[in-house]
Amino acid sequence: MFNSSTLSNKRILVTGGGTGLGKEISRGLLASGAEVYICGRRENVLKTTCEELSKDTGGKIHYRICDIRDPESIDDMVESIFTEGPLTGLINNAAANFISPTKDLSPRGYQAIRSTVMDGSFYTVLAVGKRWINLGIRGSIVSNLVTWVWTGSAYVVPSAMSKTAIDSMTKSLAVEWGPYGIRLNAVAPGPFPTEGAWEKLNPTGKSSGATDSSSVPMRRYGEMPELANLMIFLQADGCDYLTGQTIAIDGGHHLAAPSTFASLSDLSDDDWGNIRDNIKASAEKEKSERSIG
Ligand SMILES: CCCCC/C=C/C(=O)SCCNC(=O)CCNC(=O)[C@H](O)C(C)(C)COP(=O)(O)OP(=O)(O)OC[C@H]1O[C@@H](n2cnc3c(N)ncnc32)[C@H](O)[C@@H]1OP(=O)(O)O
Ligand SMILES: NC(=O)C1=CN([C@@H]2O[C@H](COP(=O)(O)OP(=O)(O)OC[C@H]3O[C@@H](n4cnc5c(N)ncnc54)[C@H](OP(=O)(O)O)[C@@H]3O)[C@@H](O)[C@H]2O)C=CC1
């Protein structure tokens, strides 16, 4: 669909690029000629991904350890990248999420998700955007959202709220920063199974609602190159008039069936207890590998 020079001269930061969708998006950007920076909190994960993607694509990829819940950590990262040369693109991909009855969420549980998805994305956009404005550089920002920005979703309320806030930021800043030549768009993927998401959203292994491919009109999950191609298109030159849009890539899921967790209303308190234990075990394992945060 694209060639190895579609993104030549582009320098793109992918937050959360060490794993899952961020890693596969980075693979696509590199294969299209972009230089890529990825960030996250686990140095071992970032280093391994850089080695793998550099070997597979022959592209230039670098990592930064950064906790996007901390605005200072973001600003330090963006400053150190711009010292090597200005970015031309940003993909807001890092996120936190888990399924839980909303009544059982503590303030810290809510904040863990909001501070990553809403605040982290906003502060990253601000750190990159203000440098572009000062330097007179045009750029493309794409946020990785979810179709809950249109439907909402039970049992993942902090995520649905925070992603919707970034949808609103996308539309608002497309207007405010349009005169500077800065574009903001977003994508809203349907289910693309990843270890990180499935351990937090499908911890029983029994797909339902949002993680169920049988209710997708195309009767399958999304494939990583499909999402990577959309990201390449949104980072490439050629459709610069495209801004302020959120594009679903979900096989028609949200138009046909609840692409949400509404069906979890049938679970018992015991089921939820087991789910919480499974999610906490996954989170603890990831936490033990963190270099920051
Ligand atoms: C079609 C599908 C659409 C999918 C759309 C979106 C998908 C995604 O976004 S998937 C992304 C999945 N990846 C991640 O979540 C990676 C990052 N995750 C994390 O950092 C952790 O998993 C985290 C979210 C739990 C946060 O970790 P940390 O800040 O280290 O937090 P703690 O473990 O200390 O917990 C903070 C707070 O949260 C409460 N909590 C944790 N798990 C649960 C749970 N399952 N149910 C309810 N509450 C939970 C925890 O108890 C803490 O609160 P306090 O007890 O009050 O201290
Ligand atoms: N998988 C799916 O089906 C769908 C996913 N999405 C969206 O795609 C994106 C990626 O999800 P996915 O790949 O599935 O999940 P992952 O768990 O694999 O990715 C999350 C990434 O974010 C990073 N991250 C989390 N918190 C922070 C933080 N505080 N600072 C820096 N980095 C952080 C993690 O790295 P580390 O832990 O090392 O910090 C990890 O690399 C998310 O925005 C998600 O909402 C949207 C719709 C569907």
From TrEMBL:
Pathway: Lipid metabolism
Protein name as catalogued: Peroxisomal trans-2-enoyl-CoA reductase
Catalytic activity: (2E)-dodecenoyl-CoA + NADPH + H(+) = dodecanoyl-CoA + NADP(+); (2E)-decenoyl-CoA + NADPH + H(+) = decanoyl-CoA + NADP(+); a (2E)-enoyl-CoA + NADPH + H(+) = a 2,3-saturated acyl-CoA + NADP(+); (2E)-tetradecenoyl-CoA + NADPH + H(+) = tetradecanoyl-CoA + NADP(+)
InterPro entries documented for this protein: NAD(P)-bd_dom_sf, Peroxisomal_t2-enoyl-CoA_red, SDR_fam
Localization in the cell: Peroxisome
Species name: Zhongshania guokunii
Keyword vocabulary terms for this entry: Fatty acid biosynthesis, Fatty acid metabolism, Lipid biosynthesis, Lipid metabolism, NADP, Oxidoreductase, Peroxisome, Phosphoprotein
Main location: other
Subunit description: Interacts with PEX5, probably required to target it into peroxisomes.
